[in-house]
Amino acid sequence: MSRCYRILNRYKYHLCASVLGLSLLDHTRQRNALQITNIRTNITSSLTNGHGFSFKPFQSLTARCKDRNESSSFEFIADAAEKALPAVVSIDVKQRQFVYEVQGSGSGFIVDKRGYIITNEHVVAGNKNVTVVLSDGSKLPGVVVAVDSRTDLALVKVDSANQLPEVRMGDDSKLRPGQWVVAIGNSLHFPNTVTAGIVSNTARSITDNEMLRYQAPKVGKSKYVQTDAAINPGSSGGPLVNLDGEVIAVNTMGILQNASGIAFSIPVSEVKRFLHEFSNEEKHKSRSTSKATYSLGLRIITLTPGMAHFLHHKEKLDPSLTSGVFVFDTSRNSPAHKAGLVKGDVIIAVDNFEVHSKTDLIDAVQNSGGSPVRVTFYRPDRGFLFTDITPGKS
């Protein structure tokens, strides 16, 4: 008995602390339960009386944004597309491949209510007559009234009994990398297709990119707007717009092989220049017409040192040649075709002007004003040759 008394006496403080702890814990639980009950009572009273705070635990994010008039901030892509879509068109053309005639298509957008439409030159593909499909599905005959081969732009005119919607022009000088943009076009024959992305680069030069020259031979000196918005076949000629729905570029090229999220558009400043030149020409001649441009009918790329090294290795090029213009196709019945130029020829001079790039050749032909030019070129197994060619109007 005395032993038990000693044990209890020894641990009495521990036992008291334990009992006190349990009492405090129980008291805390009771106090929290009372507070929760009071909170529930207050909430019920506030909801019932219609004053105090409004508690909506299952209200959606969109609904809460509407309460604050902010829902539009979550639909900025749709808002931008909605402003531009009515003025975006599809352009159907007939293209001849060998002995067959096939239907091609691209995109464009109305820049003037009188029926003027901007598209890419490679979309109209040398045709004077095209079919324009408006956003509502109606079709109108169109006439190509101007082209600019250097920037790959073309102007189409349609006549409509109704007033046509037109886009608003933006300012590409204000673009910033990372800025949201929206691309609209006849992607893969799906009209009014909307895609979105960001501006990857505001002034990309692609004349020195060998891969891009192979995939897109129609490249000039222009700086391009690079974007990751999807631009597919058929999108060419459609607008790239900012979040205000203003056109800031013309979609012209998407990279389909070995890459994704890389596409290029012609800055709207080039479009404004093109339209200004056409307007001046129109006023001068007092009639709708295009500025005369001349072509040899070639598909060409600039011969780079890398290409030259490869061709030297294959014994397809004279070791002394490190620059020029490589011919990889000629249009049937074109001036170059009739003069005997063939795939694999490397043009090195036009008249007395050396040709080091595609732009050099285009400038030399354009400056001829349509007069015959002497083209000097290298042909594997034949050496250096020359021929006289009269450029044709394009």
Count of strand segments: 21
Distance between the termini: 122 Å
Helix content: 25-40%
Summarize the biggest pleated sheet. Answer: 6 strands, antiparallel, barrel
Quaternary state, please? single chain
What is the CA-atom radius of gyration, in angstroms?
Answer: 35 Å
Percentage of residues in strands = 25-35%
Number of helices in the DSSP assignment: 10
Q: Reading side by side through the largest sheet, how are the strands ordered?
A: 1-2-3-6-5-4
Structural category: alpha+beta
Low-confidence stretches: 11-25, 52-62, 213-219, 286-290
Q: pLDDT average, as an integer? A: 79
Shape: globular
Outline the structure in words.
The strands form 4 sheets. The chain has a 6-stranded antiparallel beta barrel with strand order 1-2-3-6-5-4. Strands 8-9-10-13-12-11 form a 6-stranded antiparallel beta barrel. Strands 15, 16, 17, 18, 19 and 20 form a 6-stranded antiparallel β-sheet that branches. It starts with a helix and ends with a strand. By secondary structure, it is of the alpha+beta class. It has 10 helices and 21 strands. It has helices at residues 2-10, 12-49, 61-67, 76-84, 121-124, 210-215, 268-285, 305-313, 335-339, 358-367, and strands at 88-97, 100-112, 116-120, 129-133, 139-148, 153-158, 168-169, 180-187, 190-204, 224-227, 239-241, 246-254, 263-267, 294-295, 298-303, 324-330, 346-350, 353-354, 373-379, 383-389, 392-393.
Write the layout of secondary structure elements.
Layout: H1 2-10, H2 12-49, H3 61-67, H4 76-84, E1 88-97, E2 100-112, E3 116-120, H5 121-124, E4 129-133, E5 139-148, E6 153-158, E7 168-169, E8 180-187, E9 190-204, H6 210-215, E10 224-227, E11 239-241, E12 246-254, E13 263-267, H7 268-285, E14 294-295, E15 298-303, H8 305-313, E16 324-330, H9 335-339, E17 346-350, E18 353-354, H10 358-367, E19 373-379, E20 383-389, E21 392-393
Parallel strand pairs: 7-12
Antiparallel strand pairs: 1-2, 1-4, 2-3, 3-6, 4-5, 5-6, 8-9, 8-11, 9-10, 10-13, 11-12, 12-13, 14-21, 15-16, 16-17, 17-18, 17-19, 19-20
